[in-house]
Design a protein that fits this description.
With 293 residues, the protein is an alpha/beta fold. The chain has twelve helices and nine strands. Strands 1, 2, 3, 4, 5, 6, 7, 8 and 9 form a nine-stranded parallel sheet that branches. Helix 1 runs parallel beside helix 10, helix 4 packs parallel to helix 5 and helix 6 runs antiparallel to helix 7.
Length: 293
């Protein structure tokens, strides 16, 4: 999807997880640079998020498919071996990824659950423009073919790829270098495979991404340093802003600087820096419509 023009999509993930995050999405869209949000349709504050999405027709809504660290839409009896008795997915990322890979018998239940999440969002009367996954698990080699198939089946035009330039991230946030390089290389390989499948399914996708390796800390200083490093094509920058504290947010994002992320999205300095650098704001809806011609 690359072109010489530098374009950026600002997305808030975990929309629906908690009221302070929902508030931040609405505020950053109305007054800041936030173009898109990724809905967790089975999360505790999902109904509030859906109501806000219906009030914000300019907000480009996607679905944050959840197969880890969250609750399923379907009842546990419909998902044998996939969730516990409370309908919750496992919490440990590496162990869960290995389990999904080495137990292909779980794939029918995974597809049923992903379809249920899509249908729940559509039944609420919103349009979905893109798909991604909580912890980017949608790029799992067993799962992405299901995601691409569902996107095509339900007419959802976009999907996130997680190709982050770890060199740029380390230049701005040099902590945990080995972990960042390893994670960056793993997701680059996963995204390369997924890109071919996305092309075959006729989906639009981003060329570059930030938010994977410095998650929870997309402050104004970090973004200001990132803008000159953006490459030609479409870059998605995803964060987890919030207007205040919350137990659910603290549980899943210890150390996240959520209020600083919100301040960055609202900053007139950030908007001015984007304009000065000639970086255009865009969104998944615009990319889809451009493809349609």
């Amino acid at each position: 999807m690359a072109s010489l023009q530098r374009r950026v999509i600002f997305t808030a993930d975990d929309f629906g997880l908690a009221a302070p995050l929902n508030d931040a999405v609405a505020l950053a869209h109305r007054r800041g640079v936030l173009q898109c949000a990724s809905l967790m349709v089975a999360a505790p504050a999902a109904d509030e998020a859906l109501a806000l999405a219906r009030e914000l027709p300019g907000l480009c809504l996607g679905l944050h498919l959840t197969l880890i660290q969250g609750r399923a839409m379907l009842a546990p009896r419909h998902l044998p071996g996939l969730v516990d008795s409370r309908g919750r997915f496992p919490d440990a990322p590496v162990a869960t990824g290995l389990r999904y890979y080495f137990r292909p018998g779980l794939l029918p239940a995974i597809r049923r659950e992903l379809a249920a999440q899509v249908e729940a969002a559509l039944a609420a009367g919103v349009r979905l423009w893109h798909l991604n996954g909580h912890l980017n698990l949608h790029l799992h080699p067993r799962i992405f073919p299901l995601v691409a198939d569902l996107a095509r089946e339900y007419g959802i035009p976009g999907v996130r790829l997680a190709r982050e330039d770890w060199r740029a991230t380390l230049a701005l946030a040099p902590d945990r270098p080995l972990a960042k390089v390893a994670q960056g290389l793993i997701f680059r390989c996963l995204s390369r495979r997924a890109r071919h499948q996305a092309q075959a399914a006729g989906l639009v996708y981003n060329d570059h991404l930030f938010g994977l390796l410095n998650h929870g800390r997309l402050t104004e200083d970090y973004l200001a340093g990132l803008i000159p490093r953006l490459k030609p094509g479409v870059t998605e920058i995803y964060g987890h802003p919030a207007s205040g504290g919350d137990g659910e947010l603290q549980r899943w994002g210890r150390g996240y600087r959520r209020q600083e992320e919100l301040a960055a999205l609202l900053s007139p300095n950030l908007r001015a820096a984007l304009a000065e650098a000639g970086v255009e704001l865009t969104g998944w809806r615009q990319l889809a419509r451009e493809r349609e011609g």
